[in-house]
Every structure is written in structure tokens, then in C-alpha cells.
Amino acid sequence: MTTAVSTATDGEPLEFDPYSRTFFEDPTDVYRRLRNEQPVYYSEKYGFWALSRWEDVAAAHKNVAVFSSSYGTDLHLLSNPEKFEFSMIIFMDPPEHDRMRSLVSRVFTPRSIAQLEPMVRRVITEFADEIGPAESFDLVQQWSGPFPVEVISEMLGIPKGDRQQIRHWLDIILHREEGSIHPSPEAEAAGLESGLYYYELVGDRRAHRADDMISRLIDAQVDRGDGGMTQLRDDEIAGFLALLAGAGAETVTKLVGNAAVLFARNPEQWRLACAQPETIPGAVEEILRFLPPSQYQGRFTLEEKTIHGVTIPAHQPVLLLTGSATRDEREYEDPARFDITRPSNLALGFGYGIHSCLGAALARMESRIAISEMTRRWPNYAIVEDGLKRVTMANVAGFSHVPVVVNP
Q1: For residue 355, what are the CA distances in angstroms to 247, 358, 375?
Q2: What is the phi/psi pair of residue 299, to 5°?
Q3: Which percentage of the chain shows pLDDT scores above 70?
Q4: How, if at all, do strands 49-51 and 317-320 pair?
Q5: By C-alpha distance, which of 43, 15, 48, 45 is closest to 29?
Q6: 231 in a domain, yes or no?
Q7: Residue 325 sits in a domain of what CATH number?
């Protein structure tokens, strides 16, 4: 069931700027206007197109013949008209994407991930134990920031002493200054440093095998499409590690931080989650819908495409606005209401189509366990609203600081 869609405008020129303070703080109103007024939007300022309605975003994710990933998924990369040669599957189209993804997809099946639950629970509780009986703490800085990178790193085989550095590199790499499409020199340096780290780690593991994903990728055979089988190059394995570690660290960090804020602002939903633990898996889905960590995904048109009477030319950057699609009144009843009992729907927040998130089952497990720990340890918490700090990142939404006060 859907609700009626308002066609009212705010009376001002509509501008969607993914590098503006408005976007970083809360683009909800801009998203609403995009869906109602310009569902196929063109940015004169940056030269990109944007799709904002649920049906259009979902369809574009599936239409890889038109909406390509091989030119990058960030506007900084998409602004370059030359095709890039990446070693990450997120920047590949079929058939190469399919061959490469098959190498790791079996590791991330729901059944395989379910076997990791004892390890995941141990890591999450260990970091919560470090907070102890504190009356106040920063939920992101002290908990939801550190534990996800430990979980994914343990899966991959990244040495324990290096794991938190990965998180700090990511924070620098993804950061964007207001009004700037390009990463800072510090971000470029962090990208090079982290890439070199992964490359050298693969080389070290070639000499010293272990029971981890890095060693399995080294030994894997891949079909290059010419009938022959070869092993992955070190840069290809490093690309896998960078992608998996980055997604594994960022998504859950933002989702759990967002959960703390949304539950504090919707206390009746928090009381429900505390009283009825069986609602927590649904709560994860609703948090993912209401405030998805990944706000948009970039694509590049290989041919022109007409949507709602508007033609997007070939060879154009297009942003698929997940954060808008999951609030679309055409798809959800009362989408502005945070409701952890809402019937499940397609989880666009974890991507869709061939680029759906490999680690979705793991992210769901981590978030479910984390929220369960929150209900057990801090059932009467409150957030300090004026201490909240949002990230200013390329296509990532959430909080870098969520100060919490634990009430008796």
C-alpha cells in the first residue's frame, strides 16, 4: 500500500548538491522534492544526472547494459571520461565481474556467515566490555567504530595490530570538504598508503601461508574468459582486500551509530526492541531503510536512456540515490515514520543486482548482535544531541560521534 504523493514545492529553485552542508546534515527535504519535481535530475554545477524514485533506482541497478560500474562509483572518478582499469569487482561489469565475484561469494553465503556468529559476538562484547559501567561514552568512537573492522579483518587475515589503522585510513579517504568533489591530498596519500599496505601484505602471505582468505585467494584459479585458468595477480587480491575491508568497516559502523540516534529519537520503538528481542532483525532492516549508510551509487551510461520523458545521454555520470529511494512514498506507506515492525521490502541499502553487497549477511548479523547488546547493557541510554557529529563523506551517511549518557 502506498500513500498519496504531494506535488507541492518549496517555492525555491531545486538544487541537489552531494557536497553541500544540506546533504551532509540531512537531505530528506531535497530528496522529497527530487522525487516529486525532477525524478530525473541534472546538475549543472557538477555535470551529473540523478535518479531518486524507488522504481527507477532499482531498475538502474539491474540494467548493467546501460548503467556501467566500470568508470567508477564516485563522482571524483566519474568526472573523468576515460574508462579506468580497476582491480576491484565493484568497478567491473560482466562478464569479468561475475568471474571475479564467484571467487569470494561462497565465503559470504548466509550459511557460511552463520558459522562466524561466535567470533562476531566475541568481538562485539569485548569492545563493549572495555566501556564497562561508564555513565557516559561515545558510542561510535569507542564501540561501533572499532569492532566492525576487527570482525572483517579477522575473516580476511589482516594482522591484529594493523586493523584499527585501516579504519583511520578509510575515514581520511572518504572525507570530503564542503563544496569539493575531489579528495584532499591527505585522502590521496592515505589511499596510496593503504593500497601499498594491502599489496605488501599479499606478498608476505605468498611467502607465509595461513588459514585465511588472503591465502585462499592466492591459491585460487580464475577463468579469464579465454578458456584458460590463471591465478590472481597481487594487485587483484589487494583490490579484494581493500574493498572487503572498507565495506566491512564502514557499513556497520554507520548503521549501528544511526541505530543509536534513531532509537533515542523514537523511544517507543526502543522500548519495543528491548521488550521483544524478536523485533531486532526487523529493526536492522528499518534502520537500513530510514537512514542507509550508503546514500548513493555512481554509474556511467553506455547508451542513452529515457526515463519519465527525460533522456539521459550516453557517456554521462548518474547517481542512484538510495537514500531517496528508501523514503519513496510510491513504495512505502508513511515512509517518514520509523517503524521496526514495518513489513520487509527489497533492501536497496545493501545495493541491488549484480553489485548487491557481498557482506550483507555479515552486516546484518553484526548489527543484530550489536543492537541486542545495547538493549542488554544500556536499556535506559540517552544521546547528547548537541554533541552529535555527522561525517562529511563521499556517498556515506552517518555519525562520527554519538555521545551517550547511561541513565540508571
Answers
A1: 13, 8, 33
A2: -140, 170
A3: 95
A4: parallel
A5: 15
A6: no
A7: 1.10.630.10
Q: Is residue 176 part of a domain?
A: no
Quote the distance between the C-alpha of residue 113 and its chain's center. 18
Mean pLDDT of the chain: 90
Distance CA 40, CA 48 (A): 11
Ordered DSSP codes for 243-281: HHHHHHHHHHHHHHHHHHHHHHH-HHHHHHHHH-GGGHH
Distance CA 85, CA 92 (A): 9
Phi, psi of 376 (to 5 degrees): -80, -40
Q: How far is CA 395 from the centre of its chain?
A: 8
Residue 231's pLDDT band (cuts 50, 70, 90) = confident
- Residue 295 · residue 396 · CB < 8 Å: yes
CA distance 66 to 62: 9
Sheet containing strand 49-51, edge to edge, reads: 40-42, 49-51, 317-320, 297-301, 67-68
Helix, strand, coil percentages for the chain (3-state, nearest 5): 50, 10, 35
**3-state SS class at 368:** helix
Count CA within 13 A, CB hemisphere, residue 239: 16
Please report, for residues 17, 67, 199, 343, the alpha-carbon distance to residue 95 in angstroms, rounded to integers and kept in the order given.
34, 15, 25, 35
Confidence class for position 5, pLDDT limits 50, 70, 90? very low
Whole-prediction pTM = 0.91
Q: Domain limits at 270?
A: 21-153+255-406
E strands in 96-181: 136-138
| Residues written for the chain | 408
Residues 6+ positions from 216 with CB-CB distance below 8 Å: none
**Number of neighbours of residue 149 by Cβ within 10 angstroms:** 26
**What is the DSSP-derived secondary structure letter of residue 85?**
-
Name the domain count of the chain: 1
Helices 146-156, 360-377: crossing angle, 10 deg rounding: 140
**Inside any domain, residue 279:** yes
Q: How far apart are CA 286 and CA 271, in angstroms?
A: 16
Q: Is 6's pLDDT higher than 70?
A: no
Q: Please state whether beta strands 403-406 and 136-138 pair in parallel, antiparallel, or not at all (unpaired).
A: antiparallel
- Assess if residue 216 is contained within a domain: no
Cα angle: 89, vertex 321, 319; to 5 degrees: 60
